[in-house]
Write a structure and sequence with these properties.
The chain contains 11 helices and 8 strands. It has 259 residues and is of the alpha/beta class. Helix 1 runs parallel beside helix 2 and helix 7 crosses helix 8.
């Protein structure tokens, strides 16, 4: 189990799925099923559903997140959404640098850095994603990739600036493939990320920073993953689109031996 200093976070990423009616139905089911879960819960929904889902979640334990943002507060950036607009729609969190953004939309570490700065300025909790491809893992470059992405994304910040930061380690080869890093593989990566954070910003920051695992997290593997000491939650893709499976992940049960 992760440190008691770090409250587990289970965040669902709906990606480009669901109509407004479907979003409303799923948000209600999650809201009503969270109960006394020990974890913090968030739903990161498409831009079109933010305001509607915000009303549904109002007053509940479930937080609302976006899936991306632009680094400017306003301007001539057709098709983009600003952090001010996200907050106005009811979001309190946002994903930044999901591997699909890096891969399909050529998002660089420089852009990630600017988005992170904008999110923090708007008081949005950022979920910063990092992770290696299969080719990079097979070439024994996993740690180098994670280090480069962390140093680039976090460049120029002070530890106090990054207090709200959540990091999500998501091996690209495990996203949407049905393949999941073994608990040991995930723990090794999370421990490296925490040690890198300690080197960059000190042990105090590193010990309090939540690091989520993302990559085909499912109801039948979450318990084993959450038993690892440096895994503080999950960023859930496909299984966040089904209330029953997502709520099972929210109510994870780490093996007794790990408690």
């Amino acid at each position: 189990m992760s440190s008691p200093l770090r409250k587990p976070l289970i965040a669902g990423n709906w990606k480009m799925h669901l109509t407004l009616a479907q979003s409303l139905e799923l948000a209600r089911a999650v809201r009503d099923g969270v109960g006394d879960a020990a974890s913090e819960v968030a739903l990161c929904v498409p831009f079109t559903a933010l305001a509607l889902v915000a009303e549904t979640l109002r007053g509940s334990r479930v937080r609302l997140g976006a899936q991306d943002l632009h680094w400017e507060t306003q301007g001539a950036f057709t098709g983009e959404i600003s952090p001010v607009q996200l907050v106005d729609a009811g979001a309190t969190m946002t994903i930044i640098a999901h591997s699909e953004r890096r891969r399909y939309f050529n998002e660089t570490d420089e852009a990630v850095n600017k988005k992170l700065r904008a999110a923090l300025a708007a008081k949005l909790v950022p979920i910063l994603c990092i992770g290696e491809t299969l080719e990079e893992r097979e070439a024994q470059r996993t740690f180098k990739v994670l280090q480069t992405q962390l140093e680039g994304g976090l460049k120029g910040f002070a530890p106090v600036d990054l207090a709200p930061l959540v990091i999500a380690y998501e091996p690209v080869w495990a996203i949407g493939t049905g393949k999941t890093a073994t608990p040991d593989q995930a723990q090794q990566a999370h421990l490296f990320v925490r040690k890198t954070c300690a080197r960059l910003y000190g042990e105090g920051f590193a010990s309090g920073c939540r690091i989520l695992y993302g990559g085909s997290v499912k109801a039948d593997n979450v318990d084993r993953l959450m038993a690892e000491p440096d895994i503080d939650g999950a960023l859930v893709g496909g299984d966040s689109l089904k209330a029953a499976s997502f709520l099972r992940i929210v109510h994870f049960q780490a093996p007794a031996a790990a408690r």
